Write the C-alpha cells for this entry.
Amino acid sequence: MNAQGTVNPGRRPWSPYVGGALSGLLVVASVWVTGKFFGASTTFVRSAGFVERVFSPERVAALEYFVKEAPKVDWQWMFVAGIFVGALLASLASGTFRWQGVPPGWAERFGPSRLRRGVAAFCGGVLAMFGARLADG
Amino acid sequence: MDLTYGLVTGILFGIFLQRSEVLRHDRQLGALRLRDMTIVKFMLSTVVVAMVGVYLLVDLELAKLSVKPLVLGGNVVGGLAFGLGWGLLGYCPGTSLGALGEGRWDALWGILGSLCGAALYAEAYPVMKATLLTWGDFGKITLPQVLGVNHWVVIVPLASGAVLLFRWFERKGL
C-alpha cells in the first residue's frame, strides 16, 4: 500500500477512541459471559511461582503469597498470553512489526546502548510489579 | 472452557492495543510527560464504556462487581512504586507481552524484571501485611456507596467529564 517509500510505515493506526471503546465492550462481554474482569499482575505472581518452584519447591510451598496465588494456568494467564499473540498477529498483518531493542525516544535521550536500556527496563519492571502487587492492582 | 475464553479475550485485546499504537514505549512516555494523550484517550474510552456496560449488567442482575479494597498504605506507596517503575520501563507490565509481540524486544527485560518484582513481593508479603496493608484500610467501598447515591448519579457526570476532556485534548492537538 505504501508505494515507493524506503521504510514502509505500515497501515494507519486506529483512533484510540475506537480501540478503547472496543476494549470497553470486550470487558463488558467478558464480565457477562465468564464473570472475569481484566487484570494481569496476578499472572506474574503465578509465573514467578512456576519458575521459583524449579529451583526451590520448599520455598514456594512455604510462602503464604504463593499459597494465596498458587502457580497455575488460569483464565488470566491465558488472557496475558493472548495479548502477546494478538499483538503479534495484528503487527504482522498491518506491517507494523518492528524488531527493536531500543525505543527511538529512549535513544534520543539516553543513547543507543542496549545495555543501558535493558538495565533501566529491568529495574522498572521490578518496581512496577512490586508496586502493582502492593496496591492490589 | 475458562482458558479458551481467556485466550480469545486476550487475543482481541492484543489486536485493539496494537492497532491503536498504545503498546509503544514512546507513546507511554508521551502520556506520562503529558505530551501525547493517545494512551489516556484509549484508557478513558475503555473505562467509560466498561463502566456503563458493567453497571447495566449489574442492574439487570446479569453480573456482579469485583470491588478491590481501599487500603491507603498499599494504594499510595504501591502507586508511587508503580509510577516510578512504569516511567523507567516505558511499558505497562500487563501489556509488556503485547509490546514484545510487536517486536519491541526490550520489553523482555521488563517482563523478567516484573517476574523478579512479583517474587520479591511474595517474600515481602508477611511484612507488608503487618504494616503498610493495615494503614488506612477502608475495606471494599465504592464512590456511590460512600456518597450514599444511586450509581448512575456518579456514572453520568464521570462519563460527561471524560467527553469534555476528550474535546479539550482534540482542541489542543494532544
In short: The radius of gyration of chain A is 19 Å. Chain A touches chain B through 92 residues (CB under 8 Å). Residues 1-5 of chain A have pLDDT under 50 and may be disordered. The helical segments of chain A are 16-33, 41-55, 57-62, 64-68, 75-94, 104-110, 114-134.
